[in-house]
Amino acid sequence: MISLVVQILLSSVTPIIIHYRHLQLRVYHFTFYRFVSCYMLSTICLFTIYERSARKFGYSMVHMQVTYNIRIRYKNSGESVPTSLVNSNTSE
């Protein structure tokens, strides 16, 4: 008789606990994905703002990196760098 009561109590309590843990898990996943997406969006926004403000002063991080890579390739191959790639903001 006692085991039957315990079994009924456990069968009624277990779904609540599982549902509660599942709810906690869903909330945790939601906050984790929201944190990651907010972090990525803020990084992209900050990079865009930085890049736009840098272009106002004539500096572009992307352009400087690309021209640097091209210059290194030309330097390693022994050819001269084309004048169209020479930027006044970057030094040889």
Give the ordered list of helices and strands.
HH
Beta-strand fraction estimate: under 5%
Mean pLDDT value: 67
Helix content: over 70%
Poorly predicted residue ranges: 88-92
* Count of extended strands: 0
Gross morphology is: elongated
Biggest sheet statistics: none
Structure classification: mainly alpha
Number of H/I helices: 2
Number of domains: 1
Indicate the radius of gyration in whole angstroms: 30 Å
Alpha carbon gap, first and last residue: 90 Å
Transmembrane segments: 31-50
Keywords: Membrane, Transmembrane, Transmembrane helix
Structural write-up:
Keywords: Membrane, Transmembrane, Transmembrane helix. This protein is mostly helical. It has one domain. The protein has two helices and no strands. It has helices at residues 2-56, 61-77. The chain is elongated and about 95 Å long.
What is this structure's SSE topology?
Layout: H1 2-56, H2 61-77
Offer a quick outline of the entry:
The protein is mainly α.
Distinctive features:
92 residues; membrane; disordered C terminus; 0% strand; transmembrane; mainly alpha; transmembrane helix; 2 helices
